[in-house]
């Protein structure tokens, strides 16, 4: 399966060495961050509008079919329950796509050298790629929320929890995308990573259902899935009710980010599959 082609800002990449070294110019982190944001924003119809349309289709199909058949929480319609799950799913998938596709594209086209040539530290590279992924994930998530909110009445019980899980979730998937992009050497490997890890973990995390409707064995499996805590905690911010304790969910999500960030920084510092 071939990954969708996204705009590659080769010109911005070629200017990286000059921008980093020029007196009064942008520092390396800001330049690389600008390049990564510009990369997806130049084709926002594909990278932002298309995922929003996909989420609307999910909502229309599942909401229409299951609205009168599934009851999740008291006084909360199934469509309302579904909206935060679709928003968070869009945030996660697009955050992963941003960093992973950028790295694999740079490897294949050969312009990764323009990122490696400047004196960028592994911290700067990590921060630029992950923050750009967070920007893309949140942009898509906001678009999905604005459009799907018309179909259901939503509460914003705890705005802080919504923002915390959205940002942390996007950062985790941006970091995971960075690791996948470093590891993969061709689009097929990246597609396998996404199709056999990211997609199943996302769909089995409670986006379309409450895990309390599952048999005990599958409830246990769901509790071993970090994606479940991201989506459940995010949904708690809207309704004030959840399948798991939001504090525990935040601890799991925060720990997952720290572990993945440490791994990504180690790979970047060693130059694994980047400089060799």
Provide the succession of SSEs: HHHHHHHHHHHH
- Span between N and C termini? 26 Å
Name the structural class. Answer: mainly alpha
How many structural units, i.e. domains?
A: 1
Quote the average pLDDT: 87
Q: What is the radius of gyration?
A: 19 Å
Q: What fraction of the residues are assigned to beta strands by DSSP?
A: under 5%
Query: What oligomeric state do these chains adopt?
Result: single chain
In the predicted model, the low-confidence regions spanning at least 5 consecutive residues are 18-25
The number of helical runs is 12
General shape: globular
DSSP summary, beta strand count: 0
Write the layout of secondary structure elements.
Elements: H1 10-14, H2 16-21, H3 28-41, H4 44-66, H5 78-109, H6 113-116, H7 122-148, H8 159-183, H9 187-203, H10 216-223, H11 226-239, H12 246-270
Structure description:
The chain has 276 residues and is mostly helical. The model is unreliable at 18-25 (pLDDT under 50). The protein has one domain (10-270). The chain is built from 12 helices and no strands. It is a multi-pass membrane protein. It is found in: Cell inner membrane; Membrane. Belongs to the ABC-2 integral membrane protein family.
Describe the structure using short key phrases.
mainly alpha; 276 residues; globular; 72% helix; 12 helices
Brief overview:
The protein is mainly α and 276 residues long. It is 72% helix and 0% strand. It has twelve helices and no strands.
């Amino acid at each position: 399966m071939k990954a969708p082609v996204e705009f590659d800002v080769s010109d911005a990449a070629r200017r990286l060495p000059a921008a980093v070294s020029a007196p009064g110019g942008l520092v390396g982190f800001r330049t690389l961050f600008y390049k990564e944001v510009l990369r997806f924003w130049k084709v926002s119809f594909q990278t932002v509008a298309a995922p929003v349309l996909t989420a609307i289709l999910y909502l229309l199909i599942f909401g229409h079919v299951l609205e009168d058949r599934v009851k999740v929480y008291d006084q909360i319609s199934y469509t309302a329950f579904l909206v935060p799950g679709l928003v968070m799913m869009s945030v996660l998938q697009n955050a992963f796509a941003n960093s992973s596709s950028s790295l694999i594209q740079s490897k294949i086209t050969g312009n990764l050298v323009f990122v490696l040539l400047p004196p960028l530290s592994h911290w700067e590279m990590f921060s630029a790629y992950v923050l750009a992924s967070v920007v893309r994930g949140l942009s898509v998530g906001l678009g999905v929320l604005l459009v799907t909110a018309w179909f259901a009445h939503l509460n914003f019980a705890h705005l802080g929890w919504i923002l915390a899980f959205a940002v942390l979730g996007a950062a985790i998937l941006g970091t995971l995308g960075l690791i996948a992009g470093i590891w993969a050497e061709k689009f097929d490997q990246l597609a396998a990573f996404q199709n056999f890890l990211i997609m199943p973990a996302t769909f089995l995390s409670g986006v379309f259902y409450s895990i309390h409707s599952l048999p005990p064995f599958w409830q246990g499996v769901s509790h071993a899935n970090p994606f479940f805590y991201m989506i459940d905690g995010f949904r708690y911010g809207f309704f004030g009710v959840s399948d798991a304790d939001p504090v525990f969910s935040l601890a799991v999500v925060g720990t997952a980010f720290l572990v993945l960030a440490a791994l990504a920084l180690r790979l970047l510092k060693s130059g694994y599959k980047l400089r060799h």
